[in-house]
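Hello,

Our lab assistant flagged a job as stuck in the queue for most of the afternoon. It eventually completed. Since we weren't sure the result was trustworthy after the delay, we are filing this so someone can double-check. Below is the sequence as submitted and the structure that was eventually returned. Let us know if re-running is recommended.
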Amino acid sequence: MPNIKSAKKRVEVAQVRTLRNKAAKSALRTAIKKADLAIASQAEDREVLLKAACRKIDQAAAKGIIHKNNAAHKKSRLTKAAAKAQA
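-- returned structure --
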């Protein structure tokens, strides 16, 4: 445990940021799973869920939670699956 006041604050700030990032990443995973399930089951709202998942992916990339290439890969995989299911 740090003794210096500024180091103590950095520990607290890091904990807050870790929790915020963890929550955002969890929400991202949930959105992707919902979109995957909707695409696989040919649900009527799959387009809405796909759009929501892409939005979450973009937000996570913008906040630095995931890398921009990782975001592009996830979006590409989802849209490719959706196109395949629709055909």
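-- support follow-up --
The delay was a queue issue, not a problem with the job. The result is valid. The chain has a mean pLDDT of 96. The CA atoms of residues 27 and 56 lie 8 Å apart.
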